[in-house]
Structures are given as structure tokens and as C-alpha cells.
Amino acid sequence: MQTPLKIAVVGSGLVGSLLAIYLKRAGHTVHVYDRSQDIRTVQFSGRSINLAMSHRGWKALDDIGLGDEIREIAIPMDKRAIHLVGEPLAYQYYGKDGESIYSISRGLLNRKMVTLAEEEGVEFFFGVRIWDVDLATATLLKGETERGPWEELKYDIVFGADGAFSRIRHRMQRQSMFNYSQEFLSLGYKELNIPANEDGTHKLDKNSLHIWPRKEFMLIALPNLDGSFTCTLFMPFEGENSFESLKDKETLEAFFAKHFPSTIDVIPKLVEDFFKNPTSTLVTMKCYPWTYNDKVALIGDACHAIVPFYGHGMNAGFEDITVLNSFINQYGNDWLTIFKEYEKSRKPNADAIAELSYRNFMEMSSKTADADFLLQKKIEKHFSEKHPDKWLPLYSRVTFSYSPYSEALAIGDRQKAIMDEVMKMENIEVIWDTVEVEQKILQLLEE
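Below the sequence we write its predicted C-alpha cells.
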């Protein structure tokens, strides 16, 4: 237990809610502010990508005894299901021994986390607009409008967990020596839905992450507890195959009939959902520093928003909490050191998962349908099973381990260079599982 402080968390999303529980358990008075209404009282749909919980996220929950409760609302996915036009369905397993990522509805999990935090004694203030923060005194400024008048809310510490367009970070950006960048993809996304069968069962295999890879664009589908799937269409905003080009019912239906024929019977409300749901943007945001003295700290998307193609936005945010908590345990009441060590430890790893996430769009949209890439993955899996001490595939290192993201990126780059050489071997598609290939990899590893 630390010396009790009065702490505010701005943002009642997944990271803000879990952080509030950790801080409350450490003995603090914790208030959470959010400009939105209580998510438990509103219909949450139309612009979500289902979450894929993996090892790092589970660790943050298990460390505080909440993992089993959340597993009850999660569905394990041990593989990708690849839907190609005119070809049979193909499965690509993620890890070994049934290693899985877990599909969870964002709305369902967020509601659950808020309720769990309230049960711990955390106080939530919904529909409250925080416009600014006095960094030196950890004083929040709330009001009805951005022009004021504002009321002061005084705290010992403020955490900004208010997402990619954080108001708390906005204040920090106005200091000298604060580095900030944001980059939007030329791709956007739109939510669609595959409803359950009449008996409540899933129309597709429920233990798979379904992908329709089409190079410049793709469709994915993740299972929900009620038998439905949340689908996400990723496409360029402009160009030949783009959101801009799908202007009416006829064009949309013809496009899906050509590129996603296997979905025609399973997405009955395609036209209605497509034109009703918003087209959302994808942004990578980086900044530094993440803290101000021992008064203010950013966490989760507020300091490292990433694109969703590795499924690690939430996992990285939850790991922020794990790392922050380890420094709390190490340094006690020395919040200045806690904050400095936290940002120093997490920044390189946040940058690394941003890069990995950006790259993974190419893997999901193009390479999952590429024969050479699939052969390469087969060789890697075969070698890693024989030499688990020498080779852990990049995806497993990111998703099924706790290795720092920066280490995963560096080792992944080295492994890619090795596999590029291996794939040049003559008749590699015939000799892929021979001693010759094994020796080649071992030799390149030595070099």
C-alpha cells in the first residue's frame, strides 16, 4: 500500500477503468471522468473492431485476480480462417498446443470493467467535460463549453487515459521540448455484422479469426458470445476499390458479389449496415515525454495510439499498467521516479508495436494468401518445434510471450533476413523439411 492520494483518471475506457482498479487497490481515492455517457446505459455499436486479448492483456487482468471473470465473456481463436475467391477455406494456426487469442466485444468488456471498478470503490463521473489540466498542480478544469466558465477539480495526480485525441496530452503538447506526431492511414474501416443462426449458433467457425484478404482491402470477422460476428471492412478512402467508389446499393452488392461471394448469405443487412455505420479513420500517434513531474501521466492510446492490425492496442495499454504497477511496487511513494522509469521503459516498446501493427496489415491483407509466405511460415514452425531455444516466430513472440515489443521487432527483423536467404534455396518447396534446410538456418543464426 502507498500513502493514500487523491487521483483522477480522465477516460473510462478499458485502460482507464483497469488502471483505476489498480490505483484503488493500492489505497488511493480514485475518480474517473468521461465526457461520454455511462457506456452501460447506451447502445454500443457501429464503429467497433472486436478486441483480441492475448498474453499481455491477460497478465494485467490475472495479476489483479480478474482474468477468470473476463474469460467468461471471451471466445478463444486458435487460428485464422482464410477465405479466398474460388478456393476452399484454409486454416492457419496461430501458435502451438492450442495457443489462442481471445475475441471479446469492446462494449461488453468496457461495461464489465466499469462495473468491476465501481465494486472496488472507484467513483465515476460521466457526461463531464474536462477541457484542460494545470500540469504543475494536477488540477482539472471542467465546464460545459471549451470557452468556459470552468470549475477547478484539485488532485494529487492526474492520469490521461482519454484516447488518441486526449485533452490531457493536448495540454502537455503546449510545453517546450514535447515531441508529437500523428499519421493517418489512407485506409478507413466500417463495421458490418454476421448475425447468429436462428438457434443461436455461429454461421462460421467460432474459434477462428476470419479473413477475406484482397491486397489493398480486406474483410475480417471475430466471433461474439451471442452467435454473431463483428465484421470490419478495411478499405482505402479513395480510388478504384474504395469507400468513395461504393456510392449506392447496386454498386455495393456487385462489389461484394465479386470480391466476397462467400459472405452473401451470411451478411443479410449488408446494405443497411454499410450506409448506416460511419466510416472511421485509423491513426498512429506518438509522443514524448509521457509524464510531467510527479503530477501528470499519459497511458494507453493517449500516448501511443496504433493501428489495429496486430490486435494489440488494448494489450499494449494493459501492459502499460503492468509495467507502471511494477515500478509502484519497486519505488513506493516516489512518484517522480515511478513516472520517469515508466515512460523510459514503455516508449521504445510502444514505438515497436506501432511499427509491427503497421506492417501486419500487409501480412493480413496480402501474404496470408501467398504460397511462398505460407511455405516460409511452415518452415519457421518446423524449425522452431525442433529448436524452441533458437527460434520463436515473430507472431508468437509478440502475442504469446511477454518479451518487450522492441526486442520482438529486432529479433523479427533478423529472422526475416534469415528466411529471405532460406527461401532462395533451390527447390525449397520440395526440401523445406530436410536436414539441409535446418543446417542452413542454424548456420545463418551463428553468423
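Residues 188 and 281 are 5 Å apart (CA to CA).
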